[in-house]
Each structure stands twice: as structure tokens, then as C-alpha cells.
Amino acid sequence: MPYYRAVGQYPAKRHVAFSLDDGTPCFEEFIGEEGFSSTGSLLYHRHVPSALVGSRDWDLGDQTLVPNTPLLPRHFRVPDAFDDVRRADAVRGRRLVLGNADVRISYVAAEVDSPLYSNGVGDEIVFVESGAAVLESIFGRIEVRQGDNVVIPRVTIHRWLPVDVDTLGPLRLLCVEASGHVTPPDKHRSRYGQFLEGSPMTERDFRVPQGPLLADDAIAGEDTDVYVKHRAPGTPSGLHGSVVTYDHHPFDVVGWDGQLYPYAFNYRDFAPVVGAYLQPPPTYQVFSGSGFVVCNFVPRPLEFGPDAIKVPYYHSNVDSDEVMFYFAGETAARKGSGIRTGSISLHPAAYTHGPRRQAYLDSPGLSEPNEMAFMVDTFAPLAVGEAGRATDDPSYPWSWSDKPHAGGRQ
Asked: CA-based, 20 to 30 A from 188: which of 89, 126, 195, 385?
């Protein structure tokens, strides 16, 4: 994050002995990126944060990835795979849709509280398609709602607690799991990290943890499980799951300070750039990761130039695979293709994509914008995961043509 925060109780100087007013000693923990050479935070625990008493395997489910061959654009109707969400949680219920060495994209629909969880592989961007929840972490609480991009730094112990399920329905999340770190785009910030004048997003738009969050004394000293996803070289996916058990509850942080912590940014707070003619997708970028970028496409005043095309023109992203998650509204460019709310499309590099023919011809007459989508562009090819294979729409590749397709699918 681009700004410093201090929460709760902490000593005046770093790396000194620190006790609470009642004499309880506290134990300092540093969570930092790039060793000790980049962004970090210092947390002060009531218990020794490394005190393990057990560890066992956690089955992550099917993590296999199948190449997108023969080359095809694809449409995944992923919500169809989540009919029964009554006992699912937002961590163990995830199913893999797409992935490569840089990023893995999964989907989950959940109604029950998740266990404590830590991603030891990389930062996460979790997009809230629908529902609401409280994200509890060692940094505090954040109330999250539909349309939020929730960024959770690597190794942060946290859990998802759905709220108002009877009214709002299940918590539906698109989970983008990086292999490294996630930041807002450099182009929107000064060399010191502050958002620039004219940036479509600012520090005021980010919702940050309210805390500190302390476990009840009745459970604070109990053995507590944390589900951990971590690297495992030599395994087929390079990943493994473990359940590590601490001799205390990790929500024992009395205070912290630094610039590394979870936060939420809602797409409604993004201020899009509007011009006489269509602006390219990078103007909608909200995050950068190693090997990928994330954009939020939001409602906007439409282009006003004479005969301006108001849907994406045909394009070949020669360096990128493009993933679109359609979470609300109607996408004019793909109308009639089968795309609907909850759909995920994959338009791979080496394939020209864009609107259907009639949508392109009709677009100068459009008067109201209604597209809302979450996009991930990757710079390495994406392969298809278990949930993608299970929900692949076989008719989608041919939705641009009036002719029947000439070849079968593999």
C-alpha cells in the first residue's frame, strides 16, 4: 500500500522489549516483502507467533491444468458448478478455472465461515461478485460487499465470514492468486507511492482494517488450526496444502504499524477516463502483479465523437491472454453469445477477438453504458483448470460466425 498506518498499542521504537500496562509481554513480528528490502509491517503479539504444535496435509483438490489446445476462445459458465453452497466456505470450496506459473484464477460460492487461512505462495485479489462478508485478519476487520476488490498480502492469516446470507444470497468470489505481490499501477502514483492528481483512484477510496482484532480470552490460548497453501517443488502443481496448528489463536495482535496490510477497493469508486473515442483497456487498470494486470470495467459516459465505436474494436493482444469475468449488467459486445452474469471468457493470444458483427455495426447508436466486468490479462499462456473444463460452453467459439464450425473440439 502507498501509505503508512498505525493501529492499537506498539512501542515508540522498533525492536525493543514491549509489555502491556498489566505487564503482559508482547512479541514483535515483521511481515515484509523482498526480504527486508521492501514494504512491510510490524505486529505485536501476546503469544509467540511461531509456536507450532502440529502440522498435517490439506487436500487442495484438483489443481491440474490442461493446455488450451487446439487454440480456441472459451466461455466458462462457472456458477453452474456451484449448485449446493450450504456447507461450502470461501477457502476450501474454491475450484480452479485457469492458471499459469504467475497466477491462478478460481471461483467459489459459500454460505458458511471459512477456517483461518494463509496463502504462502503470493498475494490474493478476491473480487466479490455478490453477497457480503467480514474479512477478519491479524490486522483487523474489513466489511466487504458486492463489487469489492479485496487485496490480501502473502502469509496474512485471515478468514471469510459471510453475512446476511438469507437476504443477499451466498458469497460469490472470483479469487486471483498471484505467485508474487500485487500493487496499484505505478502509472497512477508518484515515485514516493502517493496517488497522483488525475488518477482514477486515490487513497480515500481504500477501506482498511479496523482493529486490532483480539480473540476472546476463552479461546486465545487454545490450539488453533490454520490452513496454509504453499509451494511444493516436485509435486505436479508445485503447490501443497498443510494445516498447521498453533498453541494459541493468531488473532492476538495488540497493535501494528507499517504499509503492508489487507484493503478493499470497490469498482464504484473508480473514476474512468472518458474521451471522444474509445479508450483502451489499460485506462481501466486497478492492479499489477508479476506477469499479469487487473482492470475493472465500470459504467461510464459513452464516447461522443462523430460515429464513435462504443464497443471494443477487434484486437489481437499479441502478448496476452485475456480473461473477462462478467459480474453485472449486459455486455453489448457479446450480446447473443451466451455470456451472462457470472460468465468467464478466455480470449487467448494469437486469436483476434472483439464484438459480434451486429454489435459493432450498432454501437455508434448506443446511448447508455451498462458493461461491468473484471479483467485479468496475463503475459504467459493460461491453461484450463478443473472448474473450467467442467463448465466449458462448446458453442462459444463459433458465436462470431453464422456458419457451423468446421472442426471438433478436444
From this structure: 126
Burial class (CB in 10 A: 0-12, 13-18, 19+), 283: middle
Read off the pLDDT of each residue in 375-397 and give the average, rounded to a whole number.
96
The torsion region of residue 67 among left (phi > 0), alpha (psi -120 to 50) and beta comes to: beta
What's the grid cell of residue 266? 470497490
Q: Is 120 helix (H, G, I), strand (E, B) or coil?
A: coil
CA distance 256 to 13: 12
- The CA distance from 137 to 48, in Å, is 17
Rounded CA gap, 115 and 97, in Å? 22
For 291, phi and psi rounded to 5 degrees?
90, 5
d(CA 391, CA 97): 9
Q: What is the pLDDT of residue 369?
A: 67
Does an H or E element contain 293, and which? strand 292-297
Q: What is the pLDDT of residue 405?
A: 60
> Rounded to whole angstroms, how far apart are CA atoms 196 and 129?
29
For CA atoms 250, 255, 258, 264, the dihedral sign is positive
Pairing of strands 117-119, 224-231: parallel
The pLDDT score that the predictor gives to residue 328 is 77
Measured between alpha carbons, how far is 211 from 188 in angstroms, rounded to an integer?
A: 29
pLDDT digits (tens, 9 = 90+) for 272-311: 888 898 888 889 999 999 999 999 998 888 888 999 888 8
- pLDDT mean across residues, the chain: 92
